[in-house]
Write a structure and sequence with these properties.
Number of domains: 1
Number of helices: 1
Radius of gyration: 19 Å
Shape: globular
Mean pLDDT: 92
Helix content: under 10%
Largest sheet: 4 strands, antiparallel
Number of strands: 35
CATH topology: Neuraminidase
Distance between the termini: 30 Å
Structural class: mainly beta
CATH class: Mainly Beta
CATH superfamily: Kelch-type beta propeller
Low-confidence stretches: 283-300
Length: 300
Amino acid sequence: MTGTWSAGANLATARMELGGGGNSQDAICMGGMDGSYDDTAKTEEYNGTAWSSGGDVSIVRIEFVGRGNSTDAIVMGGLDTNDYQPTLETEKYNGTTWSSGPNLASKRQRPAGGGNSSNGICMGGHLMDENQEQSYLVTTEELNGTAWGAGGDLGTEVYHTVSGGNSSDAFCTGDLEDFITTQEYNGTAWGTGGNLGVGREGAAGGGNSTDAICTAGMIWSPYGATKKTEVYNGTAWANGGDLLTGRYQLAGGGSSSNAICMGGLNSQGITVLSATEVYSEGSSAIVIPVFMSQYIRRWN
């Protein structure tokens, strides 16, 4: 079944490089850079109809991962814009205000992650040193609500990628070569899943190791932001419905049947977007066996 994207309510603050999660009825976005390319602390909550203001994040950051929904969310890692240095600090959201969470063990920029304030996961990412040399991380950390603990290492490095799930069931897409590899987590170890059909960077999505969605992002041939969506069943990725607006460096969340995406940069990399789109699964056709169709013809 191929789903359909439709327009949702616009964000109050257009933004890119933001964090976010949830689905078409209950979502959140936080942080990022606004239409003037200024860093923002603003949080917005979505109820399926409109966005409303939530509490500001305490630490304004970029290159972070933020997940959850309008009543229970988390932000992890990234660069603190006070000094533009990587941070270990996390924050958790209760639907009204952000508060300090337990520190990560490792600093990371553009990590992958998922979950919420009581059951989270953070993996991969990279670090840039004072000589602008990058190192990539394969470590995973799991949050039990009180502290982060070590999880299993990724099979390959990832950063700026689509991810979702929690400490016992997670996934991430992309790698440093072609951005198509999928990895699945069972709470102990990472394994390899089916490859994405279209490699992409700066995409959005969500879900877990058996039910996931990946949409938008920057592709290289032809170069630009894509509208393409793919959905995952735990084994293989299949084509989903196209977005109305191609974009990258956006946020989103949900599953293969119920998803949301918001914000980002347009295909030309010039305009910061406020547009929201929501995704729902299409209805299946009713297949009538041949022997039944004979009786139907007689009845008619």
